[in-house]
Amino acid sequence: MISHINLNSKFDPEMTINSxxxxxxxxxxxxxxxxxxxHILKISIYDEKLKNYVKSSTxxxxxxxxxxxxxxxxxxxxxxxxxxxxxxxxLSKDVxxxxxxxxxxxxxxxxxxxxxxxxxxxxxxNTNIPMIRNMLTSLARKFGNKLILDGKIFYTFPKVKRLYxxxxxxxxxxxxxYRAKTIKSITEEIIKESFDLDDLRFSSYGKAKxxxxxxxxxxxxxxxxxxxxxxxxxxxxxxDVWILRALFSHYYNxxxxxxxxxxxxxxxxxxxxxxxxxxxxxxxxxxxxxxxxQYLYYYIRNNEKRKW
DNA sequence: CGCCAGGCAACGG
DNA sequence: CCGTTGCCTGGC
Length: 308
What we know:
Blueprint: E1 3-7, H1 13-17, E2 25-28, E3 31-36, E4 39-45, H2 53-56, E5 59-67, H3 73-77, H4 84-91, H5 95-103, H6 114-122, H7 129-143, E6 146-149, E7 152-155, H8 160-165, H9 168-172, H10 179-192, H11 205-213, H12 220-230, H13 241-250, H14 252-256, H15 271-285, H16 289-303
Antiparallel strand pairs: 1-5, 2-3, 3-4, 4-5, 6-7
Helix pairs in contact: 6-12, 11-12
The structure holds a DNA duplex.
């Protein structure tokens, strides 16, 4: 079940995995292991010049493996079916984007399992990336299935039903704190309201977002992350505090005209301001706004020299 | 010890 | 509609 792929492509798995959009991936030697629902995904990079492959922008050979079998997962998960030439052409109309596309050549948006994505970003509120990782790892260890690959122990991501049946206290024991209530409400909404997360792939951005935001604990930002990273809404543009600061310094003119007040109060995000800013920036970047967000995010996080 | 971190809902004006 | 407040938790 190993598929080989020769790429002279705009794709850098390591940079992509490290761009803050996925949380359950870990490196071991020349391999990366990731959890996607109940699958373990594995990438092995057999390029002697592992450290230089970004510069050469050519990956001699990568092996993609999955357990259980998930044929062609690499195309799906890393969005290798996206027309990057068109996306780049589209975004390059913006001066900063045109720079970032070259600077971070190979950075991609990834597709995630919808339920895992939703729980992941529900855990992201008011915390940091190491903690999010800690919460998700604990949840998987407690509620997922144990699998062994290459002599390493992995835990798959819990099923909706399994978390639905868990008590708040059990969920809380995974260091999630007050987010346990949100996690619980997500599973309840999916089970009781019998709406299928996966079906939202086929809804419009607006309809899908409306559905997501009915759930207790899911606001604008988390909904936009789920839409972009797991529900095929490349026009979603999640705005967190980092992106907000970036918009203020690099896209002030785009935002400003849409706001009726001129002072800087918009730096604090209320629901209404989120919508105004979101509308303005999505209108500006267009149908690939999500890619613009990812490039911008990677740029500012690196400039801040943050530890991921 | 106090403060902070990739939001959100609840509440008063 | 706006602003404020509290929230679990681990790291500093």
